[in-house]
Each structure stands twice: as structure tokens, then as C-alpha cells.
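Usage

Read records sequentially. Each one opens with the input sequence:
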Amino acid sequence: MVTRQQRPNVPAPVSAVLFVVALLAGVGCSEFAWRTRPTPKREPSKPGTVDTSPRTETDQDRWPPPGTTPERRIEIADLESALERARTRLKRFVPTPDLIDSLYFGWFERPYRRATIAVAVKTVALLERELHFRRSDNGVIRDRRLTAMLAWLDSALERATHEAHRTGFRPNRTRFDPVVILTEPRPLGATDSPPRFAFVDRSSATRYDRAFGDFDLLACTGMGAYGLGPRTAVFAGRGNGLAARAEALGIGVVAQTTGTAETQSASWFAIQPLTLAALFSTVDRAPDSSPLLAVSDPPRGESWGASLARRSLLRAVAPGQSVVVTGWTPPCAATKPRGGISGPSATRLAMWVHVLVGQQLAVIEGWRDLRDGSRLAYAPLATRPDQVETVAHTALDLLYYAGQLGAFLGQAPVAVVIDAGALERQSPNRWSPEATDLFDTLLNRQLLFDVIPAPRAVREGVLKGYRAVLVAVDGIDVQTVAPTRSGSLADIRRYVESLPEPMVSRDLRAPTGFIAYDPDGRVASACLVLNGRAADGKPCFAVANLQARGRTVVLRSASYPGNPPFRDLLTNETVAAGRDQVRFAGHQVRLFVPLSGGPE
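and closes with the structure output:
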């Protein structure tokens, strides 16, 4: 346990300031007012400890109450009672209103539990605000959503009592270092620095606020970076103080801007969000110019193939930097977007896959009050505590496995050459249906691909190393010795579909690649396979089930006969590639590494 005397990475001049910082304004933690009535028959818990005295759950502790349905109308008295119980239970974990002291430092050794508790604090603050509005018959959260929030809160406080932790894992000691993100690219845009995910709180850090919004609370979720919306007031007034606090806590500040901006401190750098159309227009941008380019995800999502193509285009336009995404949105399972954010399992899968294809930093929008007036297109996540907890815990998982993730970043065997004609005419930030169909077809055939903009593709050496080049632009002559197929987007899609199975892998895939097959012998669709090499040179591969339903696949490679044994880092299960049928749950990711004495 880290006490006041053992605070990590806090410079002395700054640490004294941390305890006098005002709590959150508006929807923030200033509304999370503790009530002084003690818990009956219990002594107050110390920071970072859990009351383990026997406790019997009663009907009053459960939500919804017995005999009710989630659709029923929530009366003010019901909400008051539920909040009173939640405050009493939550005080066992956070006994004082000083979140930096009792939550950030008090639970430093338990990052997963701390993230859950932090989201619970935010959820109670939102419910307190909703109760205030409902007392004047002016509520803003629907009863169904309110019921879901209360149910999650009850479950989270129960899980926080027993949640396991990783001994010795302290992610906040892995300090945020923008220099690594900016200057040390790796294959597919990865870096040695751990992947980062950050929230943007649109209702905070402006000249109209007296505090920094949910900064202190977000520091407890293990995000590693705090995102600021594109507001000029941030740079002028409170920005330097915010960056100083970020450095003291070991996290970073990511400022979104529409033009060039200088880095304010070692923990703060600026990113410029761009649509797909804007990326095509910046192909010749100098790699060392500022700010860092970022691609914007569409608020309503897109297909898996389109999402991977979006990130690949950024890698091609800015080859000297890592993949940075703003407005991060989980892809949809279907070609046509379903709208809104997906379920927790789909969110977890998307975070894993995007990091495995080289994404280094993602800025997640939507952590805001429903009444902040920002009119942001992204759905507010503050009323989805299950999603926020999923993002926080998955970000911690990615930090934990950061040292192994680089081994799965293999080179794509196929290059797809396109221009801005692959975009929707009426939407500068969406692929056309024909382009989306092509990307999804390549993905379903387990052909990892890179998107190369046409002006860059004609340059000598750009397409070197690809096993096949698919050109969907008229009138250009690409310079490559690899087999080339030209035509419209629809023509190329039909060509890929016509490739025989399983010969598709032998024609276009790198010879050391593992492939996932259905039990009937066909290449498994909606299944992403990434091949790579571990530090010792041995092959490894990651497999992601992009479907919501479970499935069984067989993993094979023509280059490694004899059914070599592999171990899944995430489940610790051992399989013999080529022989064993491997069971995947819906939206599951597996990371396979060779056992000692495996294939050379």
C-alpha cells in the first residue's frame, strides 16, 4: 500500500498543491458530497483497505428492488434510497472526499479495483445531479438508463470488495512520455511505449470552470493520458497548471487543435484531428511538422475492414509517427453501422485489435454532462459506467501486456492503392460502400492489407516488400515487382472473392503465416489473424474472433508442420497448432506464443 509518505513520482513542489485542489465542478466530484452518518455497526475503513466483516445482503441492498422490472418508473424516493445505500457502501473504499489522497494514492497497489471505484464515484455524482433535476421535474436521464446505472453501481461495489489484482503491477509508474510516441515508430506504427487511451471531458478545463473537470477522477482509471477538447481557452489560461498536475501524477495531456500548436510541457502535446478526405490532401506533409496528425473515427462507427483501413491510411500518410485516433469508436460487426457505442465485450475487442495493428494513442470522446451544451456527435459515456469500466480495465490490460504486444505486429502482405474516389461523395469521413465491401472481403479472407494513397504509390520503393498490389485508381503506373491487379473497387473485390480456398493464403500471404480455418476446412471469416516474431525470432500470432457468438477454429501453417505447441498469454491454455480445435468465445482475443523448444 502506498501511503502519504510513499507517494510515487510526485515532485515535492507539486505534491503540496495536490491536496488543496478544488473538487470537480458541475457534474464532477463536487456533487459527490459525503454524508456524515456512519455505517451502522462498523468502524470506518482506512484508505486502500476493504471492510471484510460479515455482511448479509438484504432486499434493500439489491437493485432493482425485488418484484420490480427495469422498465418501471423510478420515483424520487427510490432514487434517494438507492443513493443513500450506495454512499454508505462506497465510503468503505473512499472514506474521505479527498480523491487524490484516499483513492488515487490509497488504492495505488490495486489499479483495477481503483478504476472500478473511480467510475462508481463518477456514477454517484451523476445520479446526485439527476436527483436534483428530478426534484424540480426536470430530469435528463431516462428511467431505463437510470435503472441500468443503479444496477451496475450495485454490482461494481460488490465486485470491488473481492476483485483480484496483479501483484506488482503499478501502471502509474509507467510515466507518459510523448517523446516516444512522436519519435520512435515501429512496424505498423507501433512503438516501445505502452498503448494509451484517454477520455475527453468536453465540459471541463475552460475559462468558465473553477476546476479541471474530472481530471483527478480520470487519473484513477489508469488511462495514462487526459484529453482536452479543441478550445482555445485551454491553451491560454489553465493549460499550464493542468499539465503540471498531469506530470505530478505521471499521466499526459493531449490537446486537440485545428492548427499548429507548441507543446506546453514534457507531458503535453497537440494532435490535429483529420477526416479521411483531409488525410488524402496531406500526403506530402513533412513528417516532422507539428501538431501530430490523427484520424477521426466516425461517431456512429463503421465496419471492421473500414476501421482497419482508416488507421492504415494514416500510417501511409504519416509514416514517421504512431497511429493516433480521435473520437475512438468500436467498429460494427455488420457492414452497415448500427449507431452508437457497442457493448462492453465489443469495446474490449476493438481496443485489443486496434492496438495490435499499431494504434498508439486513442482519444475517447463523450465523458461529459448531458447538459454541457457541446452538442458533440459522440454518445455520452458518463451514463454508461459499464463501458467506462471496460475501457479502463482493458487499458490496464494493454499496459500490463505492453512488452509482448510488439511481437504480433507483422508486415501486411497486400497493398491496396486508392485515392479520394474511395470516399462517399457526401461525407468526407466515410469510405464508400464499394471500398468498405473490398476491405471487409480482404479481412474475411484473412488477408492483412495496407492502404496506400495513389500519389505516394507511384514513388519508387513505396510498394517494396508486398506480395501483391491491388490498384483501384485509373491512369497510374505503380512501381513494383509484386503481382498487380488493377480495376475498380468492385472488380478487385470480385477478384479477391474468386481466389480459391485455402490457396488464397499461399498466393498472397507471407510464407510463415498462421491461418484460422473453420472445422470444415474453409478459411474462417470474421476472424483476424496477425502474425509476427517474438524477440527470440520464433513465430507468434494473435487471433481475434470478430463475431459476437462463439466459434471453433483450427490454426494451421504450411511453414511449421508437426503441430508445434503454443501457449495463449491471456488464458494460459496450450494448443497444438494444426491439430487441436480451439474454442473462441464471442469477441475474444488470443495471443499465441511458442512454448520452450517450439519451432525455430
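Summary fields computed downstream for this record:
- The first strand starts at residue 196 and ends at 200.
- The mean pLDDT is 77.
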